[in-house]
Write a structure and sequence with these properties.
Elements (H helix, E strand, L loop, with lengths): L1 E10 L2 E11 L4 E6 L5 H8 L7 E6 L2 E3 L4 H6 L2 E4 L11 H8 L9 H15 L14 H14 L4 E5 L7 H16 L3 E5 L3 H7 L2 E6 L2 E7 L5 H9 L22 E7 L12 E5 L4 E5 L6 H9 L6 E6 L2 E2 L5 H6 L2 E4 L3 H4 L7 H6 L3 H4 E2 L4 E2 L1 H15 L14 H14 L4 E5 L7 H16 L3 E6 L2 H7 L2 E6 L2 E6 L6 H9 L9
Parallel strand pairs: 3-8, 3-9, 6-7, 7-8, 13-20, 13-21, 16-19, 19-20
Antiparallel strand pairs: 1-2, 1-4, 4-5, 9-10, 11-12, 11-14, 14-15, 17-18, 21-22
Helix pairs in contact: 3-4, 3-5, 14-15
């Protein structure tokens, strides 16, 4: 259905794609695998017309095609679901779909569109209320709406860029069920993911990219986890837990205390209810929960970006209930949010400029009239070396892949040795090697006496790296455990508020 021949794409001095070739067949899932910055997102954005390729040929159904825009791609039956969803929050699902249709009439028949959405939803297990406003949908439902939008536009080649990055574990299984139904109808699926277990579970063929080139192509029957890692990195990378000493109790007051703390949600936000939390120096406290149960609001309440409507907040032994964000930041609090592009980066500024924005006072000279960019670059280089990351300092943040953007935020937030680290979905979008480096950096910070609040849906990660484990459901803490005293199934039941541990889509 789709053939790519010798695709190349350059951004300034960076060669993102270097003579890449691959074929996509009907009725198959073709996975693109590679470390952060390997060129996966750039390749599919060239296929979709989001970027213009510099060299190479693209064929659809055996015929050479020139795709200069997403409009051209959609006309040829190519659709793409981006990492950051492109729905309009204030409109209903039916209205979003209507705007995407290639033959939209002057007055859309929303009733007919809604009926077609329900029919497709039944066929592919993509049930979404056509009249629901997008802003009221969960991330998993929004992703279903994005896919329905492509199917309504008659796309037959479907590209997913890190689709499971924002999904809860049970939603991932539901997504796989949908993908299997799609390929049964001879549609083609291109899937970008960093998760090896997902590749081995769903892909029919796998193309591995390394440094912008094809490192290898294998079928699922030929693929092994060790073999794929070797292709990704040209070396063996261990995925085993990092050996670490147990946390040592530190003296002095708690780093953070929340006492009966509550917040008032406003539509998209979840309200927190009577939250009690104590974080001590030199420990990692994990927070488990399905996305949308108050974890984001918990981090923002600690940081001060949402108000503590009731209760008390204390940082480093001092009252901080009404303390502004800047003062909280300067006291030694860092924040790695769940959505780095929306919450932690300025898209049109360079990586180097983004590295400086949270500590401008450290680099300001002449009373703030100039910046010491050499000092910023020296600190950034030190951060990259410490973590083993490599990100070009002069690219705009908006041009980075999701994984490289996460690398940038992690490096910046750990650079100045914070005393309290709030890390939400730390390894989301990271390749195996980068994820190991990020986790190791948290352990090193803990061993230096920092306190870490690790928010994640990856229960294996939480059990391996947490000294204490909390479970959040509907804006409340519903359980506290030492990891050795519980198991994944008990935590999973508390996360979902029921006995169910698996929910099909």
């Amino acid at each position: 259905m789709l053939s790519v021949r010798a695709f190349s794409k350059r951004f300034g001095g960076v060669l993102a794609n270097d003579s890449i070739s691959l074929d996509v067949l009907p009725g198959e899932v073709h996975a693109l695998l590679g470390e952060n910055g390997a060129g996966k997102s750039t390749l599919v954005k060239c296929i979709y017309g989001f970027y213009r390729r510099d060299a190479g040929e693209l064929m659809v159904d055996g015929h050479p095609q020139e795709i200069s825009s997403p409009h051209d791609a959609r006309a040829m039956g190519i659709g793409m679901v981006f990492q950051n969803l492109t729905l309009i929050p204030a409109l209903s699902v039916a209205e979003n779909v209507a705007l995407f249709l290639p033959d939209l009439p002057r007055i859309p028949d929303l009733k007919s569109i809604a009926e077609a959405l329900r029919s497709l939803g039944e066929r592919y297990s993509l049930k979404v209320d056509p009249w629901a406003l997008v802003r009221d949908l969960s991330i998993g439902q929004q992703q279903k709406a994005e896919l329905l939008k492509l199917l309504m536009a008659r796309s037959c080649i479907l590209i997913f860029d890190e689709p499971t990055r924002v999904l809860a574990p049970h939603e991932v299984q539901g997504f796989f069920h949908v993908v299997r139904r799609l390929v049964e109808d001879d549609l083609a699926v291109i899937l970008i993911t960093h998760k090896l277990d997902e590749v081995l579970a769903i892909a029919d063929r796998i193309t591995v990219l390394r440094q912008g080139r094809v490192a290898g192509q294998v079928t699922r029957t030929e693929a092994t986890e060790a073999g794929l890692i070797r292709l990704m990195f040209d070396k063996d990378v261990t995925r085993s837990p990092i050996a670490r000493p147990e946390a040592q109790a530190a003296g002095g007051p708690p780093v953070l205390e929340l006492i009966k703390a509550s917040s008032r949600g406003d539509g998209a936000e979840v309200s927190l209810h009577q939250v009690d939390l104590v974080l001590n120096a030199g420990e990692i406290v994990g927070v488990a929960g399905v996305s949308g149960n108050g974890q984001k609001e918990l981090g923002e309440l600690i940081l001060g970006s949402i108000a503590c409507a009731e209760g008390t907040k204390r940082l480093f032994g001092a009252p901080s209930t009404n303390q502004p964000i800047w003062d909280i930041r300067r006291s030694g609090v860092s924040y790695i949010p769940e959505n780095p592009l929306a919450m932690a980066a300025i898209p049109y500024m360079t990586v180097l400029e983004n590295m400086a924005v949270t500590h401008t006072s450290s680099y300001a000279r002449r009373g703030g009239l100039s910046m010491d960019w050499q000092a910023v670059e020296a600190d950034a280089d030190r951060a990259w070396r410490r973590l083993g990351f490599s990100v070009s300092s002069y690219l705009p943040a908006r041009s980075l892949s999701g994984g490289n953007l996460q690398r940038m935020v992690i490096a910046r937030e750990l650079l100045h040795d914070p005393r309290l680290i709030i890390a939400s979905y730390l390894t989301r979008g990271l390749d195996v090697q980068s994820a190991q480096a990020a986790r190791s950096a948290l352990l090193q910070a803990r061993d230096r006496g920092a306190s870490v609040l690790l928010i994640s849906e990856d229960l294996e990660e939480l059990f391996e790296y947490s000294d204490r484990l909390l479970v959040m459901f509907e804006g409340r803490f519903v359980g506290e455990f030492m990891p050795a005293d519980t198991d994944i199934y008990e935590i999973g039941r508390l996360m979902t508020g029921s006995e169910a541990t698996y929910v099909a889509s």
